[in-house]
Write a structure and sequence with these properties.
Layout (H helix, E strand, L loop, with lengths): L1 H24 L21 E9 L5 E11 L10 H6 L17 H8 L1 H4 L3 H13 L4 H17 L42
Antiparallel strand pairs: 1-2
Helix pairs in contact: 3-6
């Protein structure tokens, strides 16, 4: 009888804790987050939060969190856990949202690891969409990373484009500069798209 009582008590306590946690977090607004929780967070409206750094005339650095125009897929009201940030090889001091990190083999290895890929859907969703924007299917990239990682990485074409930060930011959607792909044969840059 004591074990049934303790299971019911634990269930009630767990439920109460879940409600308290939701009440504590409430509706997430990017502009209310600090620099330690901003990067990789998703607002209650489903928009991704981005961290920005401003340098004052005095040289002091000031960090602000803003709402981006990038929507998360089926994820809302989420502050990414420190566990996932670490498991996926990310940094809380990341500014903006960019696919450039997919070009780094160490980052891709961590992103595709079981600890990240199987347990951190918010981060996987973000990089899945960033990879798709570059014409790369993330599951395929993760599949080839062990066998022929260099070829898989060369498929990603980095344009240097960083997604727009806050709504009031400078137009980040200006035409990106041409990019150079890396040749798999000798490591020399291949002709840019502008020359094609």
């Amino acid at each position: 009888m004591a074990s049934i009582f303790s299971l019911k008590t634990l269930a009630i306590l767990a439920l109460a804790f879940a409600f308290c946690l939701e009440a504590t977090l409430g509706e997430i607004t990017c502009e209310h987050l600090d620099e330690e929780t901003c990067a990789y967070a998703v607002s209650s409206t489903g928009k991704r939060c981005v961290l920005e750094k401003h340098v004052r005339r005095s040289g002091a650095e000031e960090y602000t969190c803003r709402t981006s125009e990038i929507e998360a897929d089926k994820i809302k009201n989420c502050i990414e856990t420190d566990h996932c940030v670490k498991a996926c090889g990310l940094d809380r001091k990341s500014f903006g949202i960019s696919s450039d990190s997919l070009l780094e083999s160490h980052f891709t290895e961590m992103l595709c690891s079981s600890a990240c890929y199987d347990n951190c859907p918010n981060i996987v969703d973000l990089y899945f969409n960033l990879a798709a924007g570059e014409g790369v299917f993330l599951p395929k990239l993760c599949e080839v990373r062990g066998r022929n990682a260099r070829r898989g990485m060369a498929e990603i074409k980095s344009s240097g484009f960083v997604a727009a930060g806050p709504i009031n930011s400078v137009n980040a959607f200006a035409a990106p500069a041409p990019f150079a792909a890396v040749s798999l044969s000798d490591g020399a840059p291949a002709p840019s798209e502008a020359e094609d």
